[in-house]
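Need a sequence for this fold. Nothing fancy.
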């Protein structure tokens, strides 16, 4: 973990209503694509707080700004205006290379389409983030295998992605997002390519393996069948967060 992150967190001191440190703080965040007549306003002033240890879901219709918002939170896209910090760190204060380094260490991504590298084994795929951080190949692959064991796929370490089912491939992608122990795990529609049953298995696994007191899990989803796994659900529409509620407050069954 980078020393600067600790320092920044100590300085910020922001807390959630129930006294947990805030991992993500967005205030009046705006973001547009394009210019002039082709300008699209994707975020119209987002206010959102996510506490450490929380599983936050972002839900809402296609095009409402979910992917844009998680990209800003993860430092992949620059916001136009407003404030956004992750564990007390504001990407706008960082140089490009510092940002890349911070992302590499602190952020893990799980994509809808898994995005595994077809020519690498499962364990090698999981090892990629570690190798990018400069860890040696054999140590990285060994840790990749260990992480696969934690997601119940130890015996498939040597399999190629094409030899795995959709649910298994998503487990490999989750192992890859977690192998470097990032503090923020961002999942963009992680269950939408999976059947209902497998989607539930994946959500249970994510909660079990990914969620810890000093981390956050941000899941973008269309899939109402997994809403019950959230601690809180932020409903978005047309570039804004319309409400933030617990599944119980929404009358949903809690998983
Ligand atoms: P969601 O993930 O909720 O479907 P997005 O964040 O992808 O929504 O998109 C929000 C809005 O921004 C949409 O109107 C979309 O068409 C637009 N948009 C997203 N990415 C781009 C881009 N690279 N260039 C132009 N417009 C974009
Ligand atoms: Mg999207």
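Here you go.
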């Amino acid at each position: 973990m980078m020393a600067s992150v600790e320092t920044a967190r100590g300085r910020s001191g922001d807390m959630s209503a129930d006294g947990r440190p805030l991992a993500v703080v967005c205030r009046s965040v705006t973001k547009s694509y394009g210019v002039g007549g082709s300008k699209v306003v994707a975020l119209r002033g987002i206010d959102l707080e996510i506490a450490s240890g929380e599983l936050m879901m972002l839900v809402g219709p296609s095009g409402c700004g979910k992917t844009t918002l998680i990209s800003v939170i993860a430092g992949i896209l620059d916001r136009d205006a407003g404030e956004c910090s992750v564990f007390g760190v504001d990407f706008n204060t960082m140089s490009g290379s510092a940002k890349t380094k911070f992302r590499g260490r602190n952020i893990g991504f799980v994509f809808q389409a898994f995005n595994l590298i077809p020519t690498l084994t499962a364990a090698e795929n999981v090892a990629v983030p570690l190798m990018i951080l400069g860890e040696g190949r054999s140590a990285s692959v060994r840790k990749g295998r260990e992480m696969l064991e934690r997601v119940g796929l130890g015996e498939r370490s040597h399999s190629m992605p094409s030899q795995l089912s959709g649910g298994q491939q998503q487990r490999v992608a989750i192992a890859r997002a977690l192998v470097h122990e990032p503090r923020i795990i961002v999942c963009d529609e992680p269950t939408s390519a999976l059947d209902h049953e497998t989607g539930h298995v994946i959500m249970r696994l994510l909660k079990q393996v990914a969620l810890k007191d000093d981390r956050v899990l941000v899941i973008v989803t269309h899939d109402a069948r997994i809403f019950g796994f959230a601690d809180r659900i932020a409903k978005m529409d047309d570039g804004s967060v319309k409400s933030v509620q617990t599944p119980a407050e929404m009358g949903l069954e809690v998983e």
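For context: The first helix runs from residue 3 to 12.
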